Model the fold of this input.
Amino acid sequence: MKFSPIEFRSQAEAALRDDTLQAALKRARSGFVDKRAKAVAALPEFELLRAEASAIRADALNRLPTLLEEFEAGVIAAGGQVHWAIDAAEARKIVLDIARCHESCRIAKGKSMVAEEIGLNPALEDAGINVVETDLGEYIIQLAQEPPSHIVAPAIHKTREQVAALFARHHERAELLTELTGIPELVDEARRVLRETFLSADVGITGANFLVADSGSTVLVTNEGNGDLCSTLPKTHIVLAGIEKVVPSMTEVSTLLRVLARSATGQPLTTYTSVFTGPRRAGEDFGPEEFHVVLVDNGRAAMLGSEFRDMLRCIRCGACMNHCPVYGAIGGHAYGWVYPGPMGQVLTPWLLGPERAPDLAHACTMNGHCAQVCPVGIPLPDLIRAMRVREHESHVNHVAERWVFRQWAWWAKRPRLYGWALRKKARWLRRLARPGGALRKLPVWSGWFRSRDLPTPQGRTLRDLMREKLRGSQ
Amino acid sequence: MGLPMNSRDRIFATLRAATAGPVAMTHTRPHLDDDLAALFETRALTTAATLDHIATAAGLPDALTSYLASIAQAEAGIAFAPAIVDLFPGARNLPIRPNGADPVAEVAVTGCVAAVAETGSVLLASSPDHPTTLNFLPETHVVIVRAEQIVAHLEDAWALIDPMPRALNLVTGPSRTADIEQTLQLGAHGPRRLHLILIADR
Ligand code: SF4
Done:
């Protein structure tokens, strides 16, 4: 299945009509939201830690070059290698070159959003390299040939029946379809098949949640343990990370860990928090012989110098999408690329260019819930609004929309006229709707009404009410 | 201008143009109850780990035998980390090699470098005496924790580590996934069971 941010409108409509997806979204939404709320309530210092986590990320971004140099020196001192990729193409080439010089044919891969961002798997497959996703969710969507629909739970849109059907087909055992009825059996089947992958892989690729400047370490959190097997068994371990991921030391990592899992899944800490520093040491029988870190820019350095700088604080917890009413209604695929929900509404147009994602910034009600839960205090609604301005200025939005804005601006600049027109319009709308009911249609606005209605104006306008209130308070 | 800039130089040039001053900040550690051993136990149990108390290290072989019997693994092959194998005199130590070993151990027994009360986690550092494979390949992982190894916060645990080993694993409960229908299932890729044996005395 192919999705694209340029097709946002049609993908969103299709998602609203997909009953299976709607059931999955409903389950996921309450699950994530309730679990986070419980975890936050259980830690009295949470809001303080959240403020400190924001400061840690903002501070690290302020001195990114220094921290990256320190990190690079640390990796090299530990016997590892650091590679710099200015864009997706260079990042793919670096990974391909490392994989090729090992004559490797098998790669075990852990979850990495950067790998999705740079389109790594298709590039490896085109080069004849066998790459297997080992995070259960990623494995499921790899079999289904779909992109992830959530950054933390990539296969959140799949039911157990769909997973059983995928396993039966790809593991070439038709009987699995009837045998694998429960979730424990499905997890065991994946464990059995993927164990072979871990044991036979020549190269392991993982992402990184944090890079630690003072020791040259990379930090990875997982619940399954797949990232650890990817980084322990193969002869070569490649870590892919965005250049923004670096923090000074494990002290800062501690604070970030305290807010990350609570925001993501409601756990105090993920099951495995692993810190990798260089290749295997003298006397060790296990661990990779080669350790590579590929640091990917791909638009991040430019973002640092832009009004979207704060977006680089993101620690990819997924809380913003879990609390977003638009994501909750349409799921991740509709956004058309690797980063869904509010964070994606900023990242996708930035990384791909506004012309390839003209509608994303508009899929927002400005309710602000995402910013309230973001563990690193990213002002997502402000950034989404700034993205709208950027799109308006680069003329990628719809002609009709531009026309509406121009009309509105004309009226808004003439307050008296505006007030008069608004009162007229409210009266007119009230006459169109049944008493007490909501409007279902209006001429010209059929598209808007396809999935919404409009509560009937009840008489006085907001301006009237405010005027009364101000008078009353005098 | 001299040589054309490589990607690293170009990235740094763009980054340097966007640097800014330091941000003022504080560092808070969550408040914890004073009884760290009790807190460690409570928190470890909420991660679905199991826990056993013994008085001295001499009780280890019996504690291990009875634990394995309780999970119907009395006959399972065991791999001991070299660091702690001497605590199990006479035990048959199987390899846990990824390839070529037969039989392969289904149970691993290791020590730890610290236990964190805040999170109920154990901290494991890779070394020739403690291969990382023991933490992830077996079905059952038994970790020996001495009471004096329990520290309060994550920061206290990191402070014990210098220099950084190849792999430092902070393990908080057995492996799990909720990737299918948001339903929690233990034993995704790592151990299905994490059992902690807490030694009160040295
Ligand atoms: S923007 Fe904030 S809430 Fe969203 S994924 Fe990033 S860190 Fe989490």
Summary: The pocket of iron/sulfur cluster is lined by residues A 314-320, 343, 374-376, 378 (CB under 6 Å). The mean pLDDT of chain A is 91. The CA atoms of residues 91 and 381 of chain A lie 31 Å apart.
